[in-house]
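Structure (tokenized):
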């Protein structure tokens, strides 16, 4: 009788990090239990230590991966676009919605509370999002408190509403995103054909 050995699964570091985001987003309050990730991936702790020095190293790399894949990726996409700032801002909101790029934000924010050594790193990512959106509003002529509040409202809305919106069809999501965009960008009294409210 021939015994066939089961091939061990091999994951790249990126596959590890992607799977970890899926696992923690399904847990309460973004807590990271390495054993849960190992069980989900059906691998041993040896696989974990092949890619990461320890738990803290893993969590730090996870935040870097989330930033690169779900923030810097968006900034690059919008940075490559032509067109006015209002068109680029709408595309940013649509791109995040279509690709569901804020789906891990709630888990990451919870992670910031449970893992203090990465809380400032996570805060910097959200601040970079606000600064990026601010640069678009600044191109539209917004200044001061108006610029800051609009930028924060867009980032907060996009980050926090993703889980709620994902329960709706993509058509409904797009409709709601366009409405939020209209409310935050254009004059309330004159509609889209007017100049910016700033």
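Design, position by position:
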């Amino acid at each position: 009788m021939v015994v066939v050995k089961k091939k061990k699964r091999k994951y790249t570091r990126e596959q590890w990090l992607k799977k970890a985001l899926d696992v923690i987003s399904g847990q309460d309050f973004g807590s990271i239990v390495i054993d849960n990730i190992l069980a989900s991936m059906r691998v041993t702790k040896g696989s974990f230590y092949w890619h990461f020095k320890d738990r803290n190293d893993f969590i730090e790399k996870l935040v870097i991966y989330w930033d690169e894949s779900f923030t810097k990726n968006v900034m690059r996409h919008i940075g490559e676009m032509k067109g006015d700032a209002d068109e680029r801002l709408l595309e940013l909101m649509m791109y995040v919605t279509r690709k569901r790029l804020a789906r891990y934000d709630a888990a990451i924010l919870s992670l910031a509370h449970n893992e203090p050594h990465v809380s400032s790193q996570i805060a910097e990512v959200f601040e970079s999002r606000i600064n990026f959106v601010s640069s678009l509003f600044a191109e539209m002529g917004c200044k001061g408190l108006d610029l800051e509040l609009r930028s924060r409202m867009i980032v907060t809305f996009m980050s926090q509403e993703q889980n709620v919106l994902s329960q709706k069809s993509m058509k409904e999501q797009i409709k709601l995103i366009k409405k939020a965009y209209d409310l935050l960008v254009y004059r309330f009294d004159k509609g889209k054909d007017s100049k910016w409210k700033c």
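Reviewer-requested clarification: The CA atoms of residues 154 and 180 lie 8 Å apart. The chain has nine helices and no strands.
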